[in-house]
Write a structure and sequence with these properties.
The protein is α+β, with helices and mostly antiparallel strands. The chain has helices at residues 8-29, 163-197, 205-243, 255-261, 264-291, 297-317, 327-359, 368-402, 408-411, 413-445, 456-491; strands at 43-47, 52-54, 62-67, 77-81, 94-95, 101-105, 113-122, 129-138, 505-512, 515-522, 527-536, 548-555, 562-569, 576-584, 588-597, 604-612. The strands form two sheets. It has a twelve-stranded mixed beta sheet with strand order 4-7-8-2-9-10-11-14-13-12-15-16, with no helix packed on it. A four-stranded antiparallel beta sheet has the order 1-3-6-5, with no helix packed on it. Helix 4 crosses helix 5 and helix 5 (264-291) runs antiparallel to helix 6 (297-317). It is elongated. Residues 514-594 form the YtkA-like domain. Residues 1-36 form the signal peptide. InterPro entries: CopC/D, CopC_dom, Cu-R_CopD_dom, Cu-Rt/internalin_Ig-like, Ig_E-set, YtkA-like_dom.
Length: 614
């Protein structure tokens, strides 16, 4: 037929080989443990602990809350309220040296009663804001509920998107699909085919090439403009989220400046802005080369592709993947996922809307359009298969990591949106299979006549190629809808793992030989209990020397023997020791003795009595 297309069997072998390579890379590199992740810096633990019961007359001097991720210092704070909804802290809330905790000092001489801690933070990783609260009590008073006083939202709520965030994220994905996918279509599909088949088509081929270059460059410009507009809108949106104010209020109190210049998001955003400016300069050089008819676009568009992929990487740096412990794997996986999706959607946009404008330059009835399409279809199908394989693998990995348990796929807003995205993906895949098996095969039969002559089969092929172009436009529109679902998906928090309510805890503090200790016993009831001991020096700093810490428990009401409970140091948390093996067999009065064994020195001990109820 005058084309140099690959036979289907060869394409199938290549696609299968690529499938095996990609599968091996992802599944052998996949982490052995996948940590469930919720968007934002969630509550980890605190001092005092949530629902703690402190001894009468011993209120804490400060409250410190630790979170699961590093947080933005300028947009994270903690406030403490009493039962009358009056603040009892010193308004000196600040982020700790670890970057993942907030500490606030309390007023001196607080009376017995219930107190409520309200926290608000912004994650450095993905920019999500989290607000929540917990209570503790001093003495026998009832702690205030988290619903009293200033309003707070559930930090685990997964239905937290707004239409502005969905819009700016969709603009970002749509623009990147146009940039990355359009460039890949030009470099990997269009140019190789048109260069190989130029001698087999009519004299209009040069005009076709020129129109394709002009239309493609305009397509790339509008894609760049969409990404740029979306990036600016994203900055305004993030400033609104960080400050907790309406969008029109971000210009007050230097909120916008603080987000842009003094946050991790701002650093990534400025790097993205620089890349966008570089991309525009390269595009200008390419546009000039087109008008001067200096055909060196491969080099310029290749360089523009690398810059566009770098812009795509900045999106992953402020996504859900950046907030995971195994980000070394999830961020590359997220980038590969976006790259495959952008290639697929971008090539559909180019094939559905830009390619027909160029092919119109061929004279009707010469079958030149069908020749070019027949040469394009095998390469188009091959790269589509690769994109689908990559999307299935990376999508499965990310869904498995984010949805725990798997039932959240249909019980959470995040999982339900993922199902919608999956449905659009399957529909798009079905349309692709249809145009490949039905339209493509019929087009090859009703293609150009032998020797390039015009006959009835050639005229039938012209009708089929117009039908194919209509089908490609439909797929491109469906791809745009798919990106809308991605905008919804990335604006939602992955559903949290539902945990049972935090039980009542007993907290005891003391000092022995200048060493401060805090013992937490939860749920402070007969049976298995969680025991934690925190050690600090006389400067109230965690003790970094590792000691051997144990608790000896003796029942005073009846003889049940002595329990020797060994505590294990917590990795990455100096001065913190925990165990969950303590088993208090009955209710009543128990004598607890904390023993701190120091190598080369005498053991430190302190004893007190607690009452465990039913």
């Amino acid at each position: 037929m005058g084309t140099q297309s690959q036979p289907p069997s060869m394409l199938a072998k290549r696609a299968g080989f690529i499938f095996c390579i990609i599968g091996c890379l992802f599944f052998f590199c996949m982490p052995s443990q996948a940590h469930a992740m919720v968007a934002g810096a969630q509550y980890s633990h605190s001092d005092p602990t949530a629902n703690a019961h402190l001894a009468s007359g011993e209120p804490p001097v400060a409250v410190q809350v630790w979170f699961t991720e590093r947080i933005e210092p300028r947009f994270s704070q903690v406030e403490v309220y009493n039962q009358q909804d009056k603040r009892v802290d010193r308004h000196d809330s600040g982020v700790g040296s670890d970057g993942a905790s907030v500490r606030v000092s309390l007023l001196a001489g607080l009376p017995d009663g219930g107190y409520r801690v309200v926290y608000h933070n912004v994650s450095q990783a993905d920019g999500h804001a989290v607000m929540g609260s917990f209570s503790f009590e001093v003495g026998g008073s009832k702690a205030p509920t988290s619903a009293s006083g200033p309003s707070s939202q559930n930090p685990g709520d997964d239905n937290d998107f707004d239409i502005w965030e969905v819009g700016v994220r969709w603009l970002n994905y749509l623009g990147l699909a146009g940039l990355v996918g359009g460039l890949l279509f030009w470099l990997l599909i269009w140019r190789p085919v048109v260069d190989a088949s130029i001698e087999y088509v009519g004299p209009e081929s040069r005009q076709v090439r020129q129109v394709m270059m002009l239309r493609s460059s305009s397509f790339l410009f509008w894609s760049w403009l969409i990404v740029s507009f979306g990036s600016i809108a994203y900055l305004f949106y993030q400033a609104s989220v960080d400050s907790g104010t309406m969008p029109w209020a971000i210009f007050a109190n230097q909120t916008l400046a603080n987000v842009a210049f003094k946050s991790r998001f701002g650093v990534v955003w400025f790097f993205r802005l620089i890349l966008l400016l570089v991309a525009f300069i390269i595009w200008l050089a390419g546009r000039r080369a087109i008008h001067e008819r200096r055909y060196r676009l491969n080099e310029l568009w290749g360089l523009l592709l690398l810059v566009s992929i770098a812009i795509m990487c900045t999106t992953s740096l402020i996504s859900h993947a950046a907030g995971r412990q195994d980000l070394w794997f999830m961020i590359p996986s997220d980038i590969v996922h976006m790259l495959a999706a952008s290639f697929w959607v971008g090539e559909l946009l180019m094939a559905g809307f830009i390619l027909p404008l160029a092919l119109r330059q061929f004279k009707p009835g010469t079958a030149d359009r069908s020749r070019v399409l027949l040469a394009l279809i095998p390469r188009f199908s091959l790269f589509t298969i690769i994109c689908i394989v990559v999307l299935i693998i990376t999508g499965t990995v990310e869904a498995t990591a984010l949805l725990k348990p798997f039932s959240q796929l249909w019980t959470s807003s995040y999982g339900q949106t993922l199902l919608v995205k999956l449905g659009l993906f399957i529909l798009l895949l079905a349309l692709g299979i249809y145009h490949q098996l039905r339209i493509g095969s019929r087009l090859s039969i009703a293609g150009p006549g032998q020797g390039g002559r015009v006959d009835a089969a050639s005229l039938s092929g012209e009708k089929l190629q117009r039908r194919l172009q209509t089908l490609l436009r439909s797929e491109a529109i469906l791809g745009i809808c798919l990106l809308v679902s991605v905008g919804f998906l990335t604006s939602l928090s992955p559903a949290p793992v539902v945990s049972p309510p935090i039980s009542r805890a007993a907290v005891y503090k003391g000092t022995v030989s200048g060493l401060q200790y805090t013992l937490t016993l939860s749920p402070a009831r007969p049976g298995r209990n969680f025991i934690e001991v925190g050690l600090k020096d006389h400067y109230s700093q965690p003790v970094r020397t590792t000691y051997t810490v144990s608790v000896h428990a003796t029942m005073l009401d009846i003889d049940t023997g002595v329990q020797d409970i060994a505590l294990q140091p917590v990795k990455g948390s100096p001065g913190l020791y925990r165990t969950t093996s303590a088993n208090f067999v009955t209710a009543g009065n128990w004598q607890l003795t904390i023993t701190i064994h120091r190598s080369g020195s005498t053991d430190l001990k302190n004893t007190f009595i607690i009452a465990l109820g039913y």
